[in-house]
Amino acid sequence: MALVTIDESDEDSFAQASQSEREGSGSHGMYFRVNGALVLARGANFIPMDQLEGRLLDEAHRIAVHSAAHANMNMIRIWGGGMVLPNAFYEACDEMGIMLYHDMMFVDEAGHRPVQTKSVEAEIRQLIRSLASHTSIVVWNGCNECQVVMGTPSEIYATFVMQIVAEEDNTRSLWPSSPSKHGWKTGVHMLDSRPNGNPLRTWGPDDFPQDLETHGPYMRSFSKDFPGVNGHDVGCK
């Protein structure tokens, strides 16, 4: 599995990246290849099925994954504002061939960022070690709705959170956040966005005139930062 950040219409760029150690995601977003074949990601965002974890049943998670597969989904995103899901969920994704785009368990809205402590570091390392054996996981990313900008407090997702992820798993693609406005400047191979051992750094807002990715509007917004469609904002004032 490879997350590819090269414009597929530019064959020369793809060939050059394939034959070199170019790093960073450049001005490109992402698309996926499996065994060289381009794959259209079709899927949904997964949030906790119940607010009370004790009522979460393995069978319910298996049914949810099977339902996604029967609906012709091939990718599910694990939302960073939720929780690490039960093993039964990941096992079902392995069995059904569902790819996972996995947030770290952070939400940055209103500046609620992690603190660089030993306990947070240990939690991230345990998360990666406990899940890395699941073949369904294809991408790790820093958090939900955190725009990583170097030289600001949000750089903690690159210099701390994702740096730990890269140390624990150098076999999978990394992405700064969901969404990421600017992508990686250093720290990953251009072809597949896997860590190359260099420090993880993102491009800055002045490097590209347009965002690589952006957050779409909610049907009815409850967010302080993101609008609702047709002006239907709820609880944002």
Walk me through the structure.
The protein is of the alpha/beta class and 237 residues long. The chain has one domain. It is built from 5 helices and 10 strands, in the order βαβββαβαβαβαβββ. Strands 4-5-6-7-8 form a 5-stranded parallel β-sheet, covered by helices on one side. A 3-stranded antiparallel β-sheet has the order 1-2-3, with no helix packed on it. Helix 2 runs parallel beside helix 3 and helix 4 crosses helix 5 (156-168). Residues 1-8 have low confidence and may be disordered.
Quick structural overview:
The chain is of the alpha/beta class. Helix content is 24%, strand content 15%.
For the biggest sheet, the summary is: 5 strands, parallel
Strand content: 15-25%
Number of structurally distinct domains = 1
For the record, give the distance between the C-alpha atoms at the N and C termini, rounded to a whole number.
44 Å
Question: Rounded to an integer, what's the Rg over CA atoms?
Answer: 18 Å
Helix and strand succession?
Answer: EHEEEHEHEHEHEEE
Strand-pairing-aware structural class: alpha/beta
Strand ordering within the main sheet? 4-5-6-7-8
